[in-house]
Amino acid sequence: MTHPRVVSLAPSATATVSALGAAPAVVGVTAHCDPPADAGTAHGEDLPITVGGWLNPDLDRVADLDPEVVLTSDGLQADLAEECRERGFDVRHREPGTLDEAVETFAARGADVGDPAAGRRLADEARRRLGRVAEAVADRPRPTVYCEEWSDPPMAAGNWVPDAARAAGGRYPFVEPGERSREVELSAVEAADPDHLVVHVCGHGDRVDPATVAERDWAVDAPVHVIDDSLLNQPSPALIDGVERLAGLFHPEAFAGPTRRLFVPPPLTAGMRVGVGSGNPVKRRAVELALESSGGNALVDDVSGGSGPVSVEPVPVPSGVSEQPTGHAETVAGAENRAEAVLEAGEYDLAVGIEGGVARFDGADGLFLVMWAAVSDGTRTGRGAGPSLELPADVAARIDAGAELGPVMDDLLDTTGVAKRGGAAGALTGGRVDRADALAAAVAGALGPFVSDLY
User: How far, rounded to the nearest angstrom, does the alpha carbon of residue 418 sit from its chain's CA centroid?
Assistant: First the structure.
């Protein structure tokens, strides 16, 4: 997967691109953005560059970064977006006003950075989470909620916040969805008699003393909840976290808590191309076995090259390590190198590298057969290990003397091509675990970040 050079001038855009798993493409951000550690890594070690504030960035610095796309957001950046267009930048300006529009923007941002499928996944995941909240709070009494975006003077939050409060099971009578935040009279808050006061002052995170609101000279008696402003004040995936946080505050007996994902993995779906960094049919079969355990047998082509909806393709590539990798580090490096080479060789949704080696373990005598797998989509890499099998002493001695395991096993078994059949794993376990099974365990482990909510 190739990464466009992206400059994000909006904190919400940076957060959304990061949730898409596309932060490595980001070469420039503003001082108000919070990029993750892997931001810019697809294009250089010293990236991303901070180009100024979100309302007054240095466009000469932006130009120096040679961006292929510039991201802006919100009506307050509309003039900036136009100025960027006049500079000749390819600007993708998104201006959501409601919760639904914010979710639609997640999908649009995927297209903006060249990964529309990731955008659709992110939007679908947001809708799933909102649906879970809606189900939890359905038919429950709706408390009246006041959300304060600014405190001096007090301002009732608008845009998507009214939708967020209602999605969380509350009633919000202060601003209509899609309208801008506006100053509110204390008497209007008193008249609404809110059951909850939610304070999310722009730019303050959660560093607000609730007493400054609770002790105002007003006739309001309700608990004050100070939450991080990023959960409600920007139309990024954090907004879904905010809805879940509000639901937990308004209906703690009904909603157990958030189900946040920092990254939305690609499901194993029809049309995917999976490249395996080897021409060895056993390695291809190992990948098929791992994918079958993750997504059902119907997903995967059979070994003879059937017409199943997920295509598993052999891609012979070099490992970049020695013929007999020794130690975990070299074996892992071989798997990672193969996965990276697959991505460079063609347009694959997932690339798999598998490498076998020998290694020792602290606290255990002897030399062990080890196997590692790496799975990558170009932005994230998962790693997994298969079973470790102790080598017979005479085999270990020959490996220590410089021989390779495959030829040693061929010699020991008086055969050829063990590596392309049951492998050393099959021979060492009396056929109870063959090489495809063992390698499939490694691949299944490496698929973790792409199939589990926990990463």
Answer: 39
> pLDDT tens, 255-311?
866 554 434 445 555 567 899 999 999 999 899 888 875 543 344 443 333 344 578
Q: Are both 79 and 217 inside the same structural domain?
A: no
DSSP H helices, 113-218, are: 116-137, 161-167, 186-192, 211-214
CA torsion, points 146, 151, 156, 162, in degrees to nearest 10? -60
| Cβ within 8 Å of residue 341, ≥6 positions away | 277, 315, 317, 318, 320, 353
Which residues pair with residue 50 across a beta bridge?
29
Three-state DSSP state, 186: helix
Task: Give the CA diameter of the chain.
Answer: 92
CATH code for the domain of 86 = 3.40.50.1980
- The answer on 200 and 348 residing in a single domain is no
* Domain shared by 310 and 418, yes or no: yes
Pick the last residue of a domain from 215, 250, 285: 250
Amino acid at 263: F
